[in-house]
Design a protein that fits this description.
This protein has helices at about 10-20, 25-35, 45-55, 55-60, 65-70, 75-100, 105-115, 155-165, 185-200, and strands at about 125-130, 135-145, 170-175, 205-210, 215. It is elongated, with a radius of gyration of 20 Å. Helix 2 crosses helix 3, helix 6 packs antiparallel against helix 7 (about 105-115) and helix 8 packs across helix 9 (about 185-200). The chain has 9 helices and 5 strands, in the order αααααααββαβαββ. The longest helix has 24 residues, at about 75-100. The N and C termini lie far apart (about 55 Å). It is about 45% helix and about 15% strand. It is of the alpha+beta class.
């Protein structure tokens, strides 16, 4: 059955207008983006197929053009549109972090880091450089590595902190394994970075681990 044949209250577009985007499931939101399905499948059915195959919205956004094109009904134009939407979301969150004290909006920081890191298949270490009012100056990927490890060098971190004239920094890295749990190496690295940056009077406000849609805060765990 085509979506146009559904009761009005169940159609994604009408539901969004009536109840707001937050009331829609991931599949319904994705269906609005897709607009149309394929023969024998509605846009919602196609959206469910994508979520089943890739596992999450973040994984869909992180998929390559080749990977997405393996799904019947998804071509280059949809891939380009998805990437544009994803990048606009990241930039919108970045603008919000630039305009206010990040400590007053910790959930936005988490959301931003999830958008940056959640779908990656290799481990990446990044930093959020902040000014004296804890507003975002820049976000920068500093190191990247393999599925399970990225080598981090404190001297290079200090160089980038001084380049941005940052007063403080928030670190984050992802666990492609999907487990949001710090290792002994993560704890040691955080301690080394904190001590190194203290020498140039720069504070480390937090260190996040991103695993899928989950985030772990070193500060909340009492590790900073």
């Amino acid at each position: 059955m085509a979506i146009t044949d559904w009761p009005a209250a169940e159609r994604p577009r009408e539901k969004l207008i009536e109840l707001g985007a937050g009331a829609l499931s991931d599949a319904e939101l994705l269906a609005i983006f897709l607009r149309v399905g394929v023969v024998g499948k509605s846009a919602v059915d196609l959206a469910r197929d994508l979520l089943t195959q890739f596992g999450s919205l973040n994984a869909i956004f992180a998929a390559t053009e080749h990977e997405l094109s393996q799904v019947h009904g998804i071509g280059s134009s949809k891939y380009v549109q998805l990437q544009a939407i994803f990048e606009m979301s990241r930039r919108a969150l970045s603008e919000q972090l630039q305009a206010r004290d990040v400590l007053s909006s910790p959930q936005q920081v988490r959301d931003y880091l999830v958008l940056k890191l959640a779908g990656l298949t290799r481990e990446v270490f990044l930093a959020l450089f902040l000014d004296t009012q804890n507003r975002l100056l820049a976000s920068e990927e500093l190191f990247s590595g393999t599925l399970s490890q990225a080598s981090v060098y404190p001297r290079e971190v200090i160089k980038r902190v001084l380049h941005h004239n940052a007063a403080s920094v928030i670190f984050a890295h992802n666990h492609p394994s999907g487990v949001a749990q710090q290792s002994a190496a993560d704890e040691l690295l955080t301690k080394q970075l904190k001590e190194a940056l203290a020498l140039v009077d720069v504070g480390v406000l937090d260190h996040f681990i991103v695993a899928g849609n989950q985030t772990l805060s070193f500060k909340e765990r009492g590790l900073l």
